[in-house]
Structures are given as C-alpha cells and as structure tokens.
Write a structure and sequence with these properties.
The complex is a heterodimer of chains A (about 450) and B (about 475). Chain A has about 450 residues and is α+β, with helices and mostly antiparallel strands. In chain A, about 40% of the residues lie in helices and about 20% in strands. Chain A has 16 helices and eleven strands. In chain A, helix 9 packs across helix 15. Chain B has about 475 residues and is of the alpha+beta class. Chain B folds into two domains: about 200 residues, 2-Layer Sandwich (Cytochrome Bc1 Complex, Chain A, domain 1), CATH 3.30.830.10; about 220 residues, 2-Layer Sandwich (Cytochrome Bc1 Complex, Chain A, domain 1), CATH 3.30.830.10. The chains are: A alpha+beta (about 450), B alpha+beta (about 475).
Chain lengths: ~450, ~475
C-alpha cells in the first residue's frame, strides 16, 4: 500500500465568522452573519429551556411545548410556518435538547422579514386550546412509542441519562415519560410559556444574504415591543455530586437484534478547558473506520458490528459515552472486555503524531464543511452561545483543537475514564437465547 | 381570527453570486472546467464519464452501477479497507455512482488535504482492482438491496412506469439491474466496461473551490494528464428508438401490498430542450404540500398522506411522473383525480400570481444546493453533461422567473397531458374493473410474473 503523507491541519486557515451582536432593550439577543453568496437566509430562534428545565413531575414538557409552537397564534393558523417556508422553496423545523429548544427556518432572503414577523408573533401571542393540546400530547406520546419503545436500542439514551445522574435533572432526558406527559394540563402550558418564552431568554441568529442595518430595524420593529416579565427566569442550580462507585444496569427488551452496551463517564461542561481534548479523545476512539474502537473491535477482533465513542458536551456537566453492539454469536462480555481494553489503553498509550494529525484533519474538515451553509453557521453560533455563553468561542475552536497534544488526551482520559466514574448499561434481548442464536 | 394580513410583504427576489467557470482541454482529450470560490478552505472535484446505464446491454442491466460501486472497493495499491482509511485520514469524501447518461466519481477535502484526496480519485478511476471477492460481495449486496425495492409498492410502480415509458429503448432497463442480470455479471464484464468507457476523451472534470483556476488546471494536468484513452473506439452514443407516448394502463396485481401505488406518467423532454424551464415550473405547480396534486388528493379529499410530481430530464427524453399511494378501494378514484389535476394545467391554468410561489420553490431549492462547493460542482457538471451552456447556470433563477403562465399552460397541453399512461401496483381486485371502464388498453400483470428486465414487463416466453 502507498503511504499517504500526513496532512498538517494547522495549514487549514479558516476565516473567523464575522457577525454583528446586539441585545435589544427587552433582552433579546440578536446575532447577524451576512454572507451574500446565495440569496437565502437561515433563521434560528433558540430558547434557553430544554429537557433539564422541565417542571417537576412534567418530564418531556419542553419538547411537548416545541410541538405546540406550530399550532398557530391569535393571528395565524396552524401550519403557518410550513406555508411561509415550504411554499417559497424553504423549510423549517425545531428540536429540543437537554439545554435548549431551537426553532429554525431557511427561506429565500427576500422573505426574511416575513419569518421574523412570524417568529416574533409566536413568541408574543401563542394560543393553545384544549383540543390541539390534547392532539399534540398524543403525537408526542406516539413519538415516544415509536422512537423509544419500538426502535431497536431506543431506550438506551434514556437509560444512560437516568442511571448516570443521581440528582441532576439531566437524568430525565428530553422525551420524558408518557405518564408525566398525560398528567400535564393546559394551565401548565400557559405557565411554561410565561416562564421561558420571553425575549431575554431567546437568542435570534440570522445568517446569509442580509443587510445588517435593515435586518436590525426589522428585528427592533417586530421583537422590540414584546415585553419582558419582571420575574427572574428559573435556572437549574443542582450540582451532580462526584460519582464514587461504578454503576451498572441491565435492561432487557423485545426487538434487540444483538446485545449492546454503553459505558458512560461524567465529564465537565462544554465551557470547561478540557472540552477540546475530550472532543479529540472522542475522535481518537470513535470517529470513522480508522478510529481505535472500530479498528480493534469491528475490524481486527470482529467482536462488534459497531463501536464508537461520543463526548456529549452540554451546558452543564455531560457524559462521555462508549458504545458497542455485539457481532452475531459473540457474548456481550467478550465485546465489553475488548471495549474496556481500548478504554484502558488510551489511558496509557496516547495518540502519536500521525494519529493526532488524522484526528485534527477530520475535526477541521467537518468544521469547515459545516461552515459552508448558512444553517451550519447559525447552528454553530447557537451552540456556542447557549452552551458556552459566547458566540466568539466558535472562532477559537479550530485553534483549540489544533493545540490539543497527545499528553492532553492522555490526561483527560486518565481524569475521566475511571471505573468509579462509570455507568454501564447492558442492553439485552428479552430472552437470552434469542439474541445469542447463530 | 386570521390576521395574516399583518404580515409584511416579501421583497423582490435577489441574485446569487456564482463563480465563473473556465474551460480547458488537456492533451489527452479530458475537458476540465474549473472555478474559484475562496470563502472557505475546501475544494471539490467531480469526474463525469460520459457513459452509464444507457451504454449497458439489456441483458447486463446493472453493470455500470456495479462498476461504479466497485471503484471505491480497492485499487492496485490499496484494499477496500485501506482506501477507506486513507480517505478518512484526509477528512475526504470519495464517492462513485452511475446514472443512465454518465458515471460520476467525486471527491472533496480541505485545501491542504485536497491534492492527496485528488490522487485517490485518480487511483480509483484508473487503477481499480475489481478483486473477485469484492465483485461477489457488491453483487450479492446489490441483489439483496433489490428485495427492498420490490417490497415497496411505490418503488415498484416507478420502476414499472419507467419501463412503460421506454420499453426496449436504451433507458428502458432498470439502472440497478434485476436479480437475473446481476447474477450473470462477471469480473471480466466489469473490467471490460471500465476499460472501454472510463476514458479521458469522453470525460469531463469539474473542479473548484479554494484554488485559482490556473492551480486547478495545473493540478489536474499533473494528476490526470498521463491518463490515456484505450485503443478501442468509444462508438456512438446509445440511441435506440423511444416508443411514442401512448395512453395505456398497466396494473401489477399485488394483493399483499398495504396500499396501491399510483403513477400517471409520460415521456417528457431532453435536458437541453428549450421547454426545460417551463416543464420545471409546470411540475412545481403540481408538487409540494401546496402543489395542486397534494391539494386535490390530500387536502380536499383525504385520499392519501401526500401526492407529488417529478420531472427527470436526460440526454435523450426523460420522464414526468405524478405519484401517490392510496387505499386499494380508492385507487380508481385517485387515479382519476391525478389525471384531472394534470389536465387542470391546461383547463384551469395557473395565473402569473399563482406562479410566484411555485417558482420560488424551484429557485429556493437551486440556491440551497449551490451553498456548498460540492453543490456548485454538481450543478456545473449537470450543465456540462447535457451540453447546456454554463451561462444558463448563472442565469438559472432568472430563466425560472421568466416562465409565465401561458408558457406553463402551453407546455402542459402539448408535453404532459396528451397520451399519458397510468401504472397501479396493488390489490387489482379492488380497482381493475373500474380502470377498464376508463381505459381501453389495460394490462394486468400478477406481481409474480413481473419482470423489469423485459421490455414487455413479463418474461419473453409469455409473448408466445
């Protein structure tokens, strides 16, 4: 085989994202990124409310609420967002994470003001009645049935959160439980909107073909008059105590094609100085076919059909997960032993220069690719601002990744990949014989 | 209640700023089209080889796809795994696929990695290994993938409609082959197709992104300049007679299908046709949530979750399909509504005002596609492949905007409405007799007898 030269990722020069950052008198923060190449704009409105902020006994509420934001307002009918986007060649959607609820639209740039109007309208005057509340609750419970119960391994993420966190509300996940969703009332909806959907809890990002001054005037015109309540916004202050003993949990379900396991380790928040090294650790272990886990478990030992790692960095301390799915006929204990071996190896055998060069190139390539689209730029700024408090950190990310050394990776691996910091979930078929057949 | 009148009006549409591609021909006959766009450190290239599925013989359907799939599964220097690892390490994307008119190999990577990634493209295009075990593996996978297609009534209906439109013409056989044709494909035939058709004198390289056009030409010459055409002549482009459009109904009886898949279709236009923009807008009037088909089928009548239309324009005439999926018992009603909705393009033509949003769906999609260097490369490649002047790409949105109500009506009246055929795949007992009342020429084919490898849709022996 012909050796490939090592690419120096430091040779990749990425221009910083240039943006205008304004906060209106009512507290709404607006960030604009002009780029005139293509007559299209991406609009994101992120509210700092996610799964962790669900009211007590109302898990899944932030996500249910996301659905209700599409049901119309006092001035519009349901599906207005679809008509304003799809009918002019754009699209729209939303997602809820542990930390935020993010609504986004992509439209031709001559439609920007219409979407600013519509986003301001649903922030200011959402109306929900019993009928569409009940309908959307059923839709979300249907989503739970389909995504969590019916999909193979659908419960795994829920279990990881639930078992790894003892007290922090991250333990409840995002989708919530059908029982708590059914307990929710229309009053809860009204209270939730009043508590979190307010200008000073919103971040508006517009990227693409826009005129900065004109766009700021539009934002002032449509969002500016929305009042800010005087009550403070409730924030999660719970601190998860350091884990001192390994936790294990065994789960059995129908529709588990092959046994699987996840090992999750507590890691600090996205704003922590170790975050970049943890992202590099993720790539060393788990990104692509050249990663250590794929090479050892899937390719060489053939004990797994898939093996990967992910640093799930959040606004508050998150989790580093390593996941393995057995190869057919392989015992879960065998696959887990191979996984453990690789996780232990990275604590003594840090990546060398070639391995680091590969990982840096991969990270830099994916960062550069996502910068190509307005929606990629907008989402990057949403995450930087909501998870790490400052859009400018996005412009330092490439340099931070390039500065990560083998010793840094070794240090974070030794710091966080410790057995007493670990929660293991074994995910098995309901009857042992079924999964192990053949 | 509804005060949407409060919503501000849209402004006038704005223009894209597209790079200007420049063309040069290398000594070996390779056309190179380069553009420079330096906003990000990324470069993309796409090699378009001017032969694909249409160059296959009927009996070897799926050959061009098998060749393309095998290019990235190992070369003289590297195994499939080593190739994947090499591409991975460069942060590159290396892909190969075939269509009816062309086979396309593309690569993209960041600026410092690109020369090495481009060398990988050269390696897979010029020195593929076609290792016997990889040929077997990819062929077996292709055959098992077909099972998925055959299990999906909508996919079967589109495949049947394609065959009905073209019968035995070069586009007629399925691009992904049939189990019977794939079984016969050997490593030798794969190597033959590759040697004959992957050649610089019938290929175009589109390259662009974070480099100057001179750098692009120099790099291409350095890497692909030594590529030589084989001695055997390429021969004429496949150009078999396409049957004239004819009203007919083809029913595939599949009682175990969950619902009936419907297609109303017709042979449409070449990509180079002056009607291309009117045809695209006419299709957009029918498509999407607010398009006429979905309004009539879903919103007004609740016959289906959705309905839409698609236009495929090729080197020779492509196809127009209107599709939906309905309960078996409603299939006859639904196909009537679909045909009436297509006819409405002439009976109740869209106004210029109606067209504003429908045209926006077309230009919006185009503009999103060209946000990335891969997207621009693909758009340039499509124009080059079909001999459409590149200037038309620069002017694409204006040409769509310029389509007026009368040109949509006139095109639909002559190019979409007359002589349409219909295809229904579902439980024929629930609708075949009703279809026979509206159509003179009706064929019912039991699903077990369906043979997409045959121009007549049934095994040749059936004709006797």
């Amino acid at each position: 085989m012909t050796a490939l030269p090592t690419i120096s990722a430091s040779a990749i020069g990425v221009a910083p994202i240039r943006y205008v950052d304004r906060t209106l008198d009512n507290g709404l923060r607006a960030i604009l990124v002009p780029d005139p190449r293509v007559p299209s704009v991406a609009i994101n409105v992120a509210y700092r409310v996610g799964g962790k902020d669900d009211p007590l006994g109302r898990s899944g509420f932030a996500h249910l609420f996301e659905h209700l934001m599409f049901k119309g307002t006092s001035r519009t009918v349901a599906e207005t967002m679809d008509r304003l986007t799809e009918d002019v060649g754009g699209y729209n959607n939303a997602f809820t994470s542990e930390d935020i609820t993010n609504y986004y639209e992509v439209v031709p740039s001559n439609h920007l003001e219409r979407l600013l109007w519509a986003e301001a309208d649903r922030l200011a005057s959402l109306t929900v009645n019993e009928a569409n509340f009940a309908t959307e609750r059923d839709v979300v419970i249907g989503e739970y049935d389909q995504r969590i119960l019916a999909e193979p391994y659908g419960m795994l993420d829920e279990l990881v959160n639930r078992e790894a966190y003892a007290v922090h509300p991250y333990r409840r996940g995002v989708i919530g439980s059908p029982a708590e969703l059914n307990a929710a009332s229309l009053d809860d909806v009204v209270a939730f909107h009043a508590t979190y959907y307010r200008p000073d809890n919103a971040l508006l990002i517009v990227a693409g073909d826009l005129d900065v001054d004109q766009t700021l005037r539009w934002i002032e015109c449509w969002f500016g008059p929305i009042p800010t309540p005087s009550a403070p916004i409730p924030r999660v202050r719970v601190v998860e105590p350091a884990q001192t003993l390994e936790r294990t949990y065994e789960y059995r379900a129908a529709n588990v094609p092959l046994p699987a396991a996840e090992e999750a380790y507590h890691i600090p928040a996205a704003s922590h100085p170790d975050a970049a090294a943890l992202d590099v650790l993720e790539s060393v272990l788990g990104a692509g076919r050249s990663s250590r886990l794929y090479t050892a478990l899937v390719y060489q030992k053939q004990v797994a059909t898939s093996a990967y790692a992910a640093a799930d960095l959040r606004e508050q301390p998150g989790l580093f997960g390593a996941r393995v799915t057995c190869a057919r006929g392989v015992e879960l204990a065998t696959a887990r032993a191979a996984l453990t071996e690789e996780l232990e190896r990275v604590c003594s055998d840090p990546p060398g220069e070639n391995e680091l060069a590969r990982v840096r190139t991969q990270i830099a390539s994916s960062l550069v690719r996502s910068r190509q689209t307005n929606t990629g730029v907008a989402l990057e700024l949403v995450r930087a601002t909501t998870e790490r408090g400052d859009p400018e950190v996005a412009n330092g990310d490439l340099a931070r990744y390039l500065a990560v050394t083998g010793d840094d990776v070794l240090r974070v691996a030794r710091t966080y990949l410790r057995s007493e910091n670990r929660t293991s979930i074994e995910y098995l078929p309901a009857s042992t014989s079924a999964g192990q057949a053949q | 209640m509804n005060e949407m009148s409060a919503i501000p009006a849209a402004g006038p549409p704005r223009d894209a700023i597209l790079p200007a591609p420049v063309e040069r021909v290398l000594d070996n006959g390779l056309r190179v089209i380069a553009f420079s766009q330096r906003n990000l450190p990324l470069i993309a290239a796409q090699l378009i080889v001017g032969c694909g599925g249409a160059a296959e013989h009927e009996d070897e359907a799926g050959l061009s796809g098998l060749v393309a799939a095998l290019l990235t599964q190992g070369t003289a220097q590297r195994s499939a795994t080593e190739l994947a690892a090499a591409s991975d390490a460069l942060g590159a994307r290396l892909l190969a696929a075939s269509g009816y008119d062309a086979s396309i190999v593309s690569v993209s990577a960041t600026t410092p990695a690109f020369p090495h990634a481009f060398a990988l493209l050269d390696e897979v295009v010029r020195r593929p290994a076609f290792a016997p075990h990889e040929v077997d593996r990819v062929r077996t996978k292709s055959i098992s993938d077909l099972a998925l297609t055959y299990a999906n009534p909508s996919a079967v209906a589109r495949a049947v409609a394609h065959r009905v439109a073209y019968a035995g013409a070069p586009y007629g056989h399925p691009l992904s082959g049939t189990a019977a044709t794939l079984e016969t494909l050997t490593r030798e035939r794969v190597a033959w197709f590759h040697e004959r058709f992957y050649r610089p004198d019938d290929a175009v390289l589109v390259i662009g992104g974070d480099l100057s056009v001179d750098e692009a030409f120099a790099l291409t010459d350095r890497v692909l300049g030594s590529w030589r055409a084989p001695a055997m002549p390429i021969g004429d482009r496949p150009h078999g007679a396409v049957p004239p459009p004819r009203t007919q109904a083809v029913i595939v009886d599949k009682p175990d299908a969950g619902r009936t898949a419907l297609v109303a279709g017709r042979l449409a236009i070449e990509r180079r046709s002056p009607d291309y923009y009117a045809a695209t807008v006419a299709t957009a009037v029918l498509s999407g949530y607010s398009g006429r088909l979905n309004q009539e089928i879903r919103v007004k009548r609740g016959l289906s979750y959705g309905a839409g239309a698609s236009l495929t324009a090729r080197r020779q005439r492509g196809t127009f399909f209107a599709t939906t999926l309905v309960d078996h018992a409603r299939a006859a009603d639904a196909i009537g509504v679909v045909l009436a909705t297509i006819r409405s393009l002439a009976d109740a033509p869209a106004t210029d005002d109606d067209l504003v949003t429908r045209k926006a769906t077309v230009t919006g999609g185009f503009h999103r596609a060209i946000e990335t260097v891969d997207g621009i490369t693909g758009a340039v490649g499509e124009h080059v492949l079909y001999d459409v002047p590149i200037d038309e790409m620069q002017d694409y949105a204006h040409r769509i905007q310029a389509v007026d109500a009368e040109s949509v009506r006139a095109f639909a009246a002559r190019g979409l409405i007359p002589d349409a055929f219909i295809v229904l795949v579902g439980d024929a007992s629930k609708f075949a007799s009703e279809i026979a009342r509206t159509h003179e020429d009706v064929r019912v084919i039991p699903f077990e007898r369906l043979d997409l490898g045959s121009p007549s849709l049934t095994p040749a022996a059936d004709l006797g």
